[in-house]
Amino acid sequence: MSDRDPKHPLRRNLIATQEQLQQQLDEVCDEVIVESTPTDELIKIEETLAAASEAAKEAISLRRRLDRDQGLT
Hints:
The protein is mainly alpha-helical.
């Protein structure tokens, strides 16, 4: 990632998306014991993981676009 242009117009979007993904993963990746986790909490975890999945897809797309724009792929 260090080869990507820090001034590229998509760079801010990528940084924001990666921060969002990291925050969502941090939220869910606490030590969760599924057997003792209430159903409503499992629903929140599922929703957070779905949002994290979308953020990961967006980060991948942005990285690929940045790489393509810079001739890295």
